[in-house]
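Troubleshooting log. The previous structure file for this entry was overwritten by mistake, so regenerating from the original sequence record. Sequence copied from the archived sheet and checked twice against the printout by T.R.
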Amino acid sequence: MQTFDVAIVGTGGIAAYHAQSLGDLDGRVRIVAAVDIDEDRLKDFGARFGVRRLHRDLTELFAAGPPDIVDLCTPPGVHAQQAITCLDHGVTVICEKPPALSLAELDRIAARTEASGPHFATVFQHRFGSGGLALAALRREGAFGAPTTAICETLWYRPDEYFAVPWRGRWETEGGGPTLGHGIHQMDLMLAILGPWREVVAVAARQAKPTATEDLSCAIVTFDCGAVATVVNSLVSPRQTSYLRFDFTEATVELAHLYGYSDADWTITGIPGHEERVRALWTSRLTGVPSGHTAQFAHVLDALEAGEPPPVTPADARLTMELVAAIYASAFTGRPVRRGEIVPGSPFYERMEGTGAPWPTAVPMPRMAPA
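Regenerated output below.
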């Protein structure tokens, strides 16, 4: 078993989840370095996780000796630049979602990768719980019949204070609102199960939050397999839930959770006469692995040990990122958008807001609750 040296770049809140998850991999990983421009935060992270090499930037990191993997836990606005720097040094990158601010940035990242490495993998950890893996396999096998319809809801809430962090809620630094930064997890799992999408019709709105981006989007998505899904991404929903439902001709499979799921969060219902067969098929595939960073990181290391590109590849992530771009394009132009339509030269290829959001550019003042 190979042991991989990993450097974590960015030591904010999500980096702690990554460090804990890497530490759960039975010695397959050594966190050998950390990087952050905030010296106090960097020192605290190093002390907490026993990381001795602490650097202020990537230049320092590579001068001191490159790791096997760089784990990017920085804000979205710097993902592309930092990923390209690492790839140009021949170092594989694992990157928190979203991998980039636009399709153009993701394509520039992909152009720096090679079949034999260095590689780039996006963190879409919901693909790797045993329930997600089981349903994706059963769908490919046609075990529950043809998919007909689906629901994909990310109904979350963020208080106004959440957007006090300077890079949040701004197109130029976060890339988008809940469509890109939050609901992308559920949408990615939906795509991992149903396969390529074909067309989207969408609306987006800034309902209540002090942001330049949307705080709500709703879409109808048609898939190559014939299924039609409704998708809602929200940061204005006080009762929070993440919900996916997949209807097949012989079964309904549902998942209700918030930020991560276990096998117990799935519900399966067979049509009359098929209940026992459907339930037996489902339970036979479950292995008790919850979704999360540990599950995905294990798959990444397995692939690297085998000399293969680790999941989720730039091509995999692009299908999800293109759906995000198409939701914005449809919402802001008022027309359906087909997969493959957003190409170089399209304003939505370079920036998610493309031609511009249909609301005032000024950020609204936070709404005050009544006394």
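The chain has 13 helices and 14 strands. Archived copy saved in two places this time.
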